[in-house]
């Protein structure tokens, strides 16, 4: 082969790489976010040897859960009252709502009902938020509602607070490493970033005054991805109008909440009216503690904590304005994860 022929061949190769690389990256990204070529939503079922399971991506006010092959409209009152709908055992209870395991046409689902009429406003706010954020990969799937009740997809693994126990199970052992656990940090930061930049404005996860309570607001899919589930306390802030928030009407204690959430005056007792409002940076303060819980003490966790030290220290700045955005935290997590798998 002559020098000219070699040069021509090299140029052609470079052109092909230049043209094909974006397509390759796009295909890989399409797979990673859980969509197939026919716009189905897919995930790994680790209880079935990691088999990929897909279901259709549904239009607005429709749903499709595992075991279904087609989307159908949200359940309405006539569905709640039909012979196909059965209420099972109580699985959780709070001042606001009762949570039951239920069944509809052989599918296990979750029924949430108002527990106390005094908290109807909070209950309906949670339903409104759940409705508003449908279609997001970060929010549990709503299946319908009737009066003071609604139904959602059932997540058999339960709350995120169970994740360390679940990762000890044999079917999840391939995820019980530093890459998989940092992936949980990425997933959590992505959810916080989504709510801070959502189509419904900047939202703050208020029901998060201690670690276990924070974790209980999220559920685990079969593939160990995380979805937000409890949206009863998701107030909106708006800097353009000066709209800030307070999380509840009671005094908040402890080191887990951000400093601005604690009563700032030592010379007199707490009153709700005097409590200064705050913004979404309270969520940022809590991210390092949640991520540390996910990392646990698996091999490599100390090294990852070292690489995250700077961003986590910034998250813990006393002044909210000095803390990073959720997007900046997310980008740092992703960069550290890329280095781990490269």
TrEMBL record:
Q: How the protein sits in the membrane?
A: Single-pass type II membrane protein
Q: Which reaction does it catalyse?
A: 3-O-[beta-D-GalNAc-(1->3)-beta-D-GlcNAc-(1->4)-alpha-D-Man]-L-Thr-[protein] + ATP = 3-O-[beta-D-GalNAc-(1->3)-beta-D-GlcNAc-(1->4)-(O-6-P-alpha-D-Man)]-Thr-[protein] + ADP + H(+)
Q: What is its EC number?
A: 2.7.1.183
Cellular compartments annotated = Endoplasmic reticulum membrane
Q: Which Gene Ontology terms of cellular component type are present?
A: endoplasmic reticulum membrane
What SUPFAM superfamilies does this protein map onto?
Answer: Protein kinase-like (PK-like) (SSF56112)
What's any GO biological process attached to this entry?
Answer: protein O-linked glycosylation
Example of a GO MF term: phosphotransferase activity, alcohol group as acceptor
Query: Keyword annotations for this protein?
Result: ATP-binding, Endoplasmic reticulum, Kinase, Membrane, Nucleotide-binding, Signal-anchor, Transferase, Transmembrane, Transmembrane helix
Q: Where are the bilayer-spanning segments?
A: 12-33
For this protein, the record's Gene3D superfamilies field holds: Transferase(Phosphotransferase) domain 1
Q: What does this protein do?
A: Protein O-mannose kinase that specifically mediates phosphorylation at the 6-position of an O-mannose of the trisaccharide (N-acetylgalactosamine (GalNAc)-beta-1,3-N-acetylglucosamine (GlcNAc)-beta-1,4-mannose) to generate phosphorylated O-mannosyl trisaccharide (N-acetylgalactosamine-beta-1,3-N-acetylglucosamine-beta-1,4-(phosphate-6-)mannose). Phosphorylated O-mannosyl trisaccharide is a carbohydrate structure present in alpha-dystroglycan (DAG1), which is required for binding laminin G-like domain-containing extracellular proteins with high affinity.
Q: What name does UniProt use for this protein? A: Protein O-mannose kinase
**Annotated organism of origin:** Paralvinella palmiformis
């Amino acid at each position: 082969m002559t020098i000219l022929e070699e040069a021509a061949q090299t140029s052609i190769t470079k052109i092909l790489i230049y043209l094909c690389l974006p397509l390759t990256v796009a295909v890989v990204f399409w797979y990673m976010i859980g969509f197939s070529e026919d716009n189905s939503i897919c995930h790994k079922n680790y209880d079935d040897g990691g088999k990929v399971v897909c279901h259709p991506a549904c239009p607005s006010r429709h749903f499709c859960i595992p075991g279904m092959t087609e989307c159908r409209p949200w359940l309405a009152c006539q569905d709640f009252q039909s012979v196909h709908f059965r209420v099972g055992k109580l699985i959780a209870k709070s001042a606001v709502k009762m949570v039951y395991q239920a069944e509809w046409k052989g599918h296990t689902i979750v029924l949430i009902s108002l527990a106390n009429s005094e908290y109807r406003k909070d209950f309906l706010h949670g339903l409104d938020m759940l409705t508003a954020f449908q279609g997001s990969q970060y929010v549990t799937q709503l299946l319908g509602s009737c009066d003071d009740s609604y139904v959602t997809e059932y997540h058999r693994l339960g709350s995120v607070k169970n994740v360390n126990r679940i990762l000890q199970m044999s079917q999840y052992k391939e995820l019980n490493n530093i890459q998989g656990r940092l992936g949980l940090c990425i997933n959590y930061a992505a959810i916080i970033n989504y709510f801070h930049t959502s189509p419904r404005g900047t939202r703050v996860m208020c029901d998060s005054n201690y670690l276990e309570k924070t974790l209980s607001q999220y559920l685990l899919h079969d593939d160990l991805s995380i979805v937000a589930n409890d949206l009863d306390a998701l107030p909106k802030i708006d800097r353009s109008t000066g709209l800030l928030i307070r999380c509840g009407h009671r005094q908040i204690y402890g080191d887990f909440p951000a400093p601005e959430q604690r009563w700032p005056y030592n010379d007199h007792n707490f009153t709700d009216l005097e409590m200064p409002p705050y913004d979404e940076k309270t969520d940022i303060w809590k991210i390092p503690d949640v991520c540390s819980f996910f990392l646990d003490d698996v091999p490599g966790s100390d090294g990852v904590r070292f690489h995250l030290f700077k961003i986590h220290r910034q998250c813990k700045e006393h002044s909210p304005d000095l803390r990073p955005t959720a997007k900046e935290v997310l980008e740092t997590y992703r960069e550290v994860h890329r280095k781990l798998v490269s």
